[in-house]
């Protein structure tokens, strides 16, 4: 539930603002402060998603409140309330970090649109922080086989550029890992990497998910919402299983790549975006083009660099190293001691047909760590990892 603080010394205006906000959205929880000092005291003690703050107030004016709040909780968006003589100061507050300003007396539509957009920005900031923490993890590609060595070399060359990359390979081979490694080694690594699983989103919702929507664009669109492309601005967007994307969404992605612009569903307003696109698929996109299920022009836009991730059956020499890596990782996650695997156990696992690739191997190693003996033996593998 969004929490909003209204800091306004004029009682009548403060009550009007509170009434407008609470009647517009029953989910808004609106708090009040009668002056700047009281407002800062509340900001110190409470968590707010947005602050509406008058500029001219006794004791502590709006500029001072904005500067003080920035030192305490810098992520709270501020919308300043300005009288007719305060426009220059209102512009100054935006240079100091305010999201926007509205004039007195407040125009209903202008106020509500500004509040909705400011709250959307707050959500994007939170999402970006969460994703930056996730990106802060170190992603490793385990193995020294020819196929993996070639991928590592390509990543070293391609990552520092903004070239679009298409990652191909069967399910479970590690396409997502390649995408993360490209982002981690790029100039955009300090910005978010936004992941979109195109196969997991219903076709009728994929455009809204990617590009956002405006209130009323469709039945369930109760407020404006930013999409993944906006969230990924200055960073990377990873379009996983892009072969499952609808043709209409493909057309919009093509426009985004051509013009660096997107528009929210239900809006004709263009929004500029600066996004690096990495896509992945387990399908043969050239066959999908022949079937009329994938746009050829989009394929050529995406496939500037193609990185193919080999199946585990094609890199069996990496299995001993992968077993050792997963053993340590799983043991740490489960609060157990890592287990050694006997030579015969490893050899037997190398002979298996790994239709589920790396993902399947990790699951088998986890099973053996939990159920196997102090040292995982050949008989443990035959008993617990049978196909």
Automatic annotation (TrEMBL):
InterPro entries linked: AAA+_ATPase (IPR003593), AAA_lid_NorR (IPR058031), CheY-like_superfamily (IPR011006), P-loop_NTPase (IPR027417), Sig_transdc_resp-reg_receiver (IPR001789), Sigma_54_int (IPR002078), Sigma_54_int_dom_ATP-bd_2 (IPR025943)
Domain Response regulatory residues, every copy: 3-119
Gene Ontology terms, MF aspect: ATP binding; DNA binding
Gene3D superfamilies, alphabetized: 1.10.8.60, 3.40.50.2300, P-loop containing nucleotide triphosphate hydrolases
Residues of the Sigma-54 factor interaction domain: 141-370
Keywords on record: ATP-binding, DNA-binding, Nucleotide-binding, Phosphoprotein
GO BP terms: phosphorelay signal transduction system; regulation of DNA-templated transcription
Superkingdom per UniProt: Bacteria
Cross-referenced Pfam families: AAA_lid_14, Response_reg, Sigma54_activat
Modification type 4-aspartylphosphate: residues: 54
Record-linked PROSITE patterns: RESPONSE_REGULATORY, SIGMA54_INTERACT_2, SIGMA54_INTERACT_4
Annotated protein name in UniProt: DNA-binding transcriptional response regulator, NtrC family, contains REC, AAA-type ATPase, and a Fis-type DNA-binding domains
């Amino acid at each position: 539930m969004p929490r909003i603080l209204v800091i306004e010394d004029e009682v009548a205006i403060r009550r009007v603002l509170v009434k407008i906000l609470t009647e517009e959205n029953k989910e808004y929880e609106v708090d009040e402060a009668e002056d700047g000092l009281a407002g800062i005291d509340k900001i110190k003690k409470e968590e707010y998603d947005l602050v509406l703050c008058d500029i001219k107030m006794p004791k502590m004016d709006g500029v001072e409140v904005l500067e003080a709040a920035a030192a305490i909780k810098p992520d709270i968006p501020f919308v300043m309330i300005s009288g007719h003589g305060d426009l220059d100061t209102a512009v100054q507050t935006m240079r100091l970090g305010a999201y926007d300003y509205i004039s007195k007396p407040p125009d209903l539509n202008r106020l509500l649109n500004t509040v909705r957009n400011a709250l959307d920005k707050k959500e994007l900031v939170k999402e970006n922080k969460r994703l930056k923490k996730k990106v802060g993890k170190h992603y490793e590609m385990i193995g020294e086989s020819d196929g993996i060595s070639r991928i590592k070399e390509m990543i070293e060359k391609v990552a520092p550029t903004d070239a679009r990359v298409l990652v191909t390979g069967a399910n479970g081979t590690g396409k997502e890992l390649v995408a993360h490694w490209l982002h981690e080694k790029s100039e955009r690594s300090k910005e978010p990497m936004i992941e979109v699983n195109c196969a997991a989103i219903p076709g009728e919702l994929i455009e809204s998910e990617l590009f956002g929507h405006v209130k009323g664009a469709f039945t369930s669109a109760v407020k404006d919402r930013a999409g993944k492309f906006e969230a990924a601005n200055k960073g990377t967007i990873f379009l996983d299983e892009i072969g499952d994307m609808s043709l209409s969404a493909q057309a919009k992605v093509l426009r985004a790549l051509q013009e660096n612009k997107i528009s929210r569903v239900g809006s004709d307003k263009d929004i500029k975006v600066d996004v690096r696109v990495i896509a992945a698929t387990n399908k043969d996109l050239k066959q999908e083009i022949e079937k009329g299920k994938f746009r050829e022009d989009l394929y050529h836009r995406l496939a500037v660099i193609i990185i193919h991730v080999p199946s585990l059956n094609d890199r069996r020499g990496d299995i001993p190293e992968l077993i050792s890596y997963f053993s340590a990782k799983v043991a740490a996650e489960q609060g157990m001691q890592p287990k050694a695997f006997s030579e015969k156990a490893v050899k037997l696992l190398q002979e298996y047909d790994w239709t589920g690739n790396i993902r399947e191997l990790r699951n088998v190693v986890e099973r053996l760590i939990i159920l196997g003996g102090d040292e995982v033996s050949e008989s443990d593998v035959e008993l617990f990892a049978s196909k």
